Amino acid sequence: MAKLTTKFVQSFNCPSDKKVMAVYDELGLMLRASYPSQKKLWIYSFRWEGKGTTISIGSYPEISLAKARLERDRLRTILKSGANPKVTKDLEKAQVMSDQSHTIKSLYALATNERINDPIKPWTPKHTKGVKHSFKLLKELHNIPIAQLSKLKLREVLVRITLDTGGASGQNAKKLMSIIYSYAESSGIVPSNLVKFFAKDRVLRKPRAEDTNKLAFIPLENLGVTYYHLRNSKASLAVKALIMIGSYTALRVGSFIDLKWADYDELKSVFIIPKEKIKNRKAITSPLPNQARELLSEIKKVQMTFQGNRWSTDMYIFSETGDKPINTESGRIHLQRVLKKHDLPKAVFHGFRSVAQILWTQKGFKEVYINLQLDHSVISGSNVIERYMGEIAFIEERAEMIQYLANHIDKEVEKYQANLT
């Protein structure tokens, strides 16, 4: 029979008196139809070690005559190389199935679980929560096998996130995809990390220092007016204490907002903060100024009055009743309200750290003390010195530094009050 034609393949059917009928093309390719379904299947027939063997190429019309011939030619090339086309095809099918199981969603679960349970530097619950938010933004990619995700598609999604939700969200989504790719690459699932190709991308590249908007902080000349209004504003004692102690110590709000009274050494006037609450996963002891001790004493009295005999050191410090800590956004929201009400420049809670660093540096406190208090990952220029210094608390030196800052804020408020009269 002559080679098959597209028209013949379209009209070919298995007669009703037969269950299966096959028509031959050439070089081992044939088309088989079944009755009564009339399903058509491309078959490649060849001999291996003296025995006749067949391989299914795919069904028609999903696989056209032209594509069937191309696949046949590929299998013939494999046969000529000395390999068994059927074994090769089975291995390819198994690889496809494996690739299909490695979706972005499944790899996200594996990669993040590894980071969360890292024995050296595990993710904090707060960081994990942020990563989950980034993953939600990548919803369009969740069910795509990573081996089938093209660079074009990945860039399209990351650019859309960047433009729709902002540069920070876009960078976080990109970082998460890099983590997923790194896991897949180290596991032999993909040959390389596609995210690396975006290092110089106009939209997706990491912002340069000059491109980054610094976290807004209270201008030094506005310290008096700002803290005057913060102290005299309508807010709970717990919220005011959170803002003032955050200002005095320059601690990240997430590291101390849910501390319990057991974490406060009243005699030594320090917060003992466990490593689980610290960004750099190193437990720290933070000195507190006299002003903070007074605020904490007031909160404690209020809680003990409310709780009576039920009060214990297992209760939360920054809380109205001690039963649960105030919302993590309380300090930020109240700060914004006060600034807006009195027409003061915008500032953020994290900006307290910038104010502290500027004032401490201007006063001449050593960089190592400042970096330890700010919980910066680098406190020196040497890894050896870093490890050594990391073991030294410098409690007295940092206590002096923090008391200076608290006194400075008081003096600025007094200056502002004097000008009101």
Task: Give a written overview of the molecule.
- The chain is built from 16 helices and seven strands.
- The chain has 421 residues and is α+β, with helices and mostly antiparallel strands.
- The chain has three domains: 6-83, 2-Layer Sandwich (Double Stranded RNA Binding Domain), CATH 3.30.160.390; 104-211, DNA polymerase, domain 1 (Orthogonal Bundle), CATH 1.10.150; 220-420, Intergrase catalytic core (hpI Integrase, Chain A, Orthogonal Bundle), CATH 1.10.443.
- A four-stranded antiparallel beta sheet has the order 1-2-3-4, with helices on one face.
- A hairpin with a 2-residue loop joins strand 3 and strand 4 (51-60).
- Helix 8 crosses helix 16, helix 9 packs antiparallel against helix 11 (290-307) and helix 9 (237-249) packs across helix 12.
- The longest helix is centred in the last third of the chain and has 26 residues, at 395-420.
- It is elongated.
- The N and C termini lie far apart (111 Å).
- The model is unreliable at 378-391 (pLDDT under 50).
Task: Describe the secondary-structure layout.
Layout: H1 6-11, E1 20-24, E2 29-34, E3 40-48, E4 51-60, H2 65-80, H3 85-101, H4 104-116, H5 125-137, H6 151-165, H7 167-186, H8 223-231, H9 237-249, H10 253-256, E5 264-265, E6 270-273, E7 284-287, H11 290-307, H12 330-341, H13 351-363, H14 367-374, H15 383-390, H16 395-420
Helix pairs in contact: 4-7, 5-7, 6-7, 8-16, 9-11, 9-12, 9-13
